[in-house]
Amino acid sequence: MTTQRIAAIATLSVGIAIGIALDRSGRRIVPPLVASETTAAVPIQRVSNGSVDPDPNAVTQDEATVIRVARAITPTVVSVTQDEGSGSGIIVDKSGVVLTNAHVVGNSRTVGVGLADGRTLNGQVLGRDPTIDVAVVRVPAQNLPVAPIGDSDKLEVGQSAIAVGNPLGLERTVTAGVVSAINRNPRGISLDGLIQTDAAISPGNSGGPLVDTHGRVIGINTAVLAGAGASGLGFAIPINLANDVVRQVLATGHITRAYLGVGFADIEPELARQFGLPVKEGIILTAVERGSPAGRAGLRPQDIIVKGNDTAIESGGDLRKLLRSLKPGATVRLEVIRPNGHSTVPIELGQAPTG
Question: Which of 111, 138, 165 is the last residue of a domain?
């Protein structure tokens, strides 16, 4: 397999970006939906000749979904401020646990946290991991509204995505779009495995939630590429990765993550046929860090991984899920396909850097 094929696979993995505009000008605001209303037809009105026409002031079903999700999630969104700037956060436990970005809290030990009910509380930074841009904060409050958590390992390119945050100090701003791509490693951003979205993200959105149409958090907004030709390129940390940091910080007070040291792209059936790959699913390595556990074990770009510890690896989400289940020092056995056949490569995992 050539380097050109690898580049082509990475390029073709970009999803279709279809924005959903929110325009309430002249529109009637609908009450929160109940379960029986989610499949209801668009409201109608009768005209003088007895025929039935759609109500021009009624919201569409797509708009009603965004309204419902926004009303449900915004009470759980907070502002986070410290001396060097401000951003957003999301309440993930009713006892006052807030998830945000490491770059939002900076090196501060305490931050100001503004709740949706108007209170501003002093938050203690419990832990942070700058390598994945996640921080955990606790505020002295109880019985707070909590955001439901989704499963970022099951995201599909093209599904709807809604971002909420405090861009430029404008609290609880809602924007909508789609998941444009997954497992992104954008140039100029020292993070990998990101969710790409065209839901508008601006300064101040960092740390706020990216949610699906069920109102479940699927990512933590972290960055946007600016400049000529970069419109609509926002990125979020997968919630499964971020939530793992929350669990560890609350349980042990520190963060421990297994480290493999590879970059990869998902293999899909269409791409496999087009490029003559020997499998229809799995992941193909696009980079191997020098001196990493993967590098020392002999993995190299263009290797195709199809299993890990006898479990199928059908996508990058499967590999990330496997690594989250293992500790530094554990051995992972990867089944690798190369031009000369299959092989099983045992790799002793390292400790991911946290700074």
Answer: 138
Q: What is the CATH number of the domain that holds 310?
A: 2.30.42.10
Active-site residue flag, 214: no
Is 253 part of any domain? no
pLDDT digits (tens, 9 = 90+) for 38-94: 333 334 444 445 555 567 778 899 999 999 999 999 999 999 999 878 899 999 999
Range of the domain at 313: 258-351
C-alpha to C-alpha distance for 98 and 93, rounded to whole angstroms: 7
Q: Which residues lie across from 184 on neighbouring strands?
A: 194
Asked whether residue 143 is domain-assigned, the answer is: no
* Active-site residue, from 133, 212, 303, 318: 133
311's CB contacts (< 8 A; 6+ apart) are 318, 322
Residue where one domain finishes, among candidates 90, 114, 138? 138
Q: Cα–Cα distances in Å, from 192 out to 79, 131, 351?
A: 25, 9, 17
291-338 confidence digits (pLDDT tens) = 999 999 999 999 999 999 999 998 887 898 898 889 999 999 999 999
- Residue 133 annotated to the active site: yes
> Could you write out the DSSP letters of every residue in 128-165?
EETTTTEEEEE-S--S---PPB--GGG--TT-EEEEEE
State how far the alpha carbon of 180 is from the alpha carbons of 33, 156, 161, 281, 295, in Å: 27, 9, 9, 20, 31
Name the active-site residue from 79, 88, 206, 315: 206
Annotated catalytic residue: which of 79, 88, 103, 152? 103
Cβ-based neighbour number of residue 214 at 10 Å? 13
Is residue 114 included in any domain, yes or no?
Answer: yes
> Does residue 112 lie within any of the structural domains?
yes
User: DSSP per residue over 273-311, as a string?
Assistant: HHHT-S-SSEEEEEEE-TTSHHHHTT--TT-EEEEETTE
CATH number of the domain at 109, please.
Answer: 2.40.10.10
Task: Count Cβ atoms below 10 Å from residue 55 Cβ, excluding itself.
Answer: 11
Number of domains in the chain: 2
